[in-house]
């Protein structure tokens, strides 16, 4: 018989990149450090230690500003290959406790304990054992959040940081959520916070809960349903294991811009990036797609989708060309774009039409395979096709 409640754990490493560097170099422990891809150039902070965060240093902050906030900041050249290696070793440790794991990012996972523990108390014991083993083996800390769905498990880990563990049980949900700022929920960013404040004078999740779903969808369209559910702690999404992801009906990625934009060159650069991410994931699973879907969300939250059926492909170039075609058909000139998304569906292992490639297609395939190999070792952003964003939003 199926359980009434799921038991989901979210584990998030604490300041992962910075903690790895401090663990390897004892001279850095207790000091404000920032990781960057290029400490000599005009780059940004990739990660900051908690000591640096106390000065206001945060990820995506320009290095010049970070040094101004924290004059004694120590800059460290990032080593993505090392972080990926350690991340994989940590995940292998997790598998000693749970078989159902979803890799959310390089430093966080979801784990579904619904059918491997008898209750939340046992999940708490395992969460603390995991945290201890990570600390003992890698000399870094992680935080665990446990609840009956992914949304609340991630919220729990966020509230328990750093080096903590928190549980949100069903009977506690309303009490915990109602007083929290809306921005505590993953998926509600600063722009949405401002829109909720200006449209409904809403600051907390309790206040958001009082807004009817009809009113939310009038302002935020389909995103309004997420806001309505989030205020109530409702989330039915599953923990997707790598095997289940391979069998998924679609593979997609989306990007929300830091600022709304109508710069076509910039938008096309983002479409190229998204095409590469989707193509890379398709090839990782040895799949081919026959349907490409483009999603465009405008500054007023109006969301439009358009799709095209194509010959089976797993080529970045074909996905990008189709995405640009769809964008040209869909886009209303002059309107500012908030979000872009590309997804590939109609997935199968059939690639019969690809047996007859021309020389240009074969060349593209070799390039993509080489890039996939590099990314597998050093991370997705370790290599690209020389993409240049000509105009900022």
Please describe what this structure looks like.
By secondary structure, the protein is α+β, with helices and mostly antiparallel strands. It has 3 domains: 1-168, Alpha-Beta Plaits (2-Layer Sandwich), CATH 3.30.70; 175-230, 5' to 3' exonuclease, C-terminal subdomain (DNA polymerase, domain 1, Orthogonal Bundle); 248-382, DNA polymerase, Y-family, little finger domain (Dna Ligase, domain 1, 2-Layer Sandwich). Helices cover 42% and strands 20% of the residues. It contains 15 helices and 12 strands. It has helices at residues 16-24, 50-53, 63-69, 80-94, 120-138, 150-160, 173-178, 190-200, 205-209, 213-220, 223-230, 242-246, 264-284, 316-330, 359-378, and strands spanning 8-13, 33-36, 47-48, 74-77, 101-105, 108-112, 142-147, 165-168, 250-261, 289-298, 303-313, 337-345. The strands form 3 sheets. A 5-stranded mixed β-sheet has the order 5-6-1-7-8. The chain has a 4-stranded antiparallel β-sheet with strand order 9-12-10-11, with helices on one face. A hairpin with a 4-residue loop joins strand 10 and strand 11 (303-313). Helix 10 (213-220) crosses helix 11 and helix 13 packs across helix 14 (316-330). The longest helix has 21 residues, at 264-284. The protein is globular. The termini are far apart. Mean pLDDT is 87; it is low at 350-359 and 387-393.
Descriptors:
393 residues, DNA polymerase, domain 1, Dna Ligase, domain 1, 12 strands, four-stranded antiparallel sheet, 15 helices, Alpha-Beta Plaits, alpha+beta, disordered C terminus, five-stranded mixed sheet
């Amino acid at each position: 018989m199926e359980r009434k409640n799921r038991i989901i754990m979210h584990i998030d490493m604490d300041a992962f990149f910075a903690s790895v560097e401090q663990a390897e170099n004892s001279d850095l422990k207790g000091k404000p450090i920032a990781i960057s891809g290029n400490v000599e150039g005009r780059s940004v902070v990739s990660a900051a230690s908690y000591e640096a965060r106390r000065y206001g240093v945060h990820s995506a902050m320009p290095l010049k500003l970070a040094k101004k906030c924290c004059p004694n900041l120590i800059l460290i050249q990032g080593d993505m290959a090392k972080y990926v290696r350690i991340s994989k070793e940590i995940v292998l440790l997790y598998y000693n406790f749970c078989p159902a794991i979803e890799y959310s990012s390089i430093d966080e996972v979801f784990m579904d304990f619904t059918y491997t523990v008898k209750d939340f108390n046992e999940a708490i014991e395992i969460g603390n054992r995991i945290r201890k083993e990570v600390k003992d083996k890698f000399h870094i800390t992680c935080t665990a959040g446990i609840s009956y769905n992914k949304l609340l498990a991630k919220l729990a880990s966020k509230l328990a940081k750093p080096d903590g563990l928190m549980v949100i049980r069903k009977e506690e949900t309303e009490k915990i959520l109602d007083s929290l700022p809306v921005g505590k929920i993953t998926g509600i960013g600063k722009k949405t916070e401002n829109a909720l404040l200006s449209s409904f004078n809403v600051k907390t999740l309790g206040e958001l809960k009082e807004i009817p779903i009809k009113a939310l969808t009038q302002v935020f369209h389909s995103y309004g349903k997420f806001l309505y559910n989030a205020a109530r702690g409702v989330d039915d999404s599953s923990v997707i294991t790598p095997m289940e992801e391979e069998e998924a009906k679609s593979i997609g990625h989306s990007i929300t811009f830091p600022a709304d934009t109508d710069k076509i060159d910039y938008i096309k650069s983002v479409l190229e990036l998204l095409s590469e991410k989707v193509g890379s994931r398709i090839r990782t699973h040895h799949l081919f797609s026959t349907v490409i879907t483009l999603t465009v969300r405008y500054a007023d939250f109006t969301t439009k989708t358009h799709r095209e059926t194509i010959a089976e492909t797993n080529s970045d170039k074909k996905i990008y060309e189709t995405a640009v075609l769809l964008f040209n058909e869909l886009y209303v000139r002059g309107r500012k774009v908030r979000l872009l998304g590309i997804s590939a569906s109609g997935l199968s292992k059939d690639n019969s039409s690809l047996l007859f490639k021309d020389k240009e297609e074969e060349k593209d395939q070799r390039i993509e395979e080489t890039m996939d190999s590099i990314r597998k070792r050093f991370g997705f952003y370790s290599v690209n096709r020389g993409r240049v964003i000509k105009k900022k939003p």
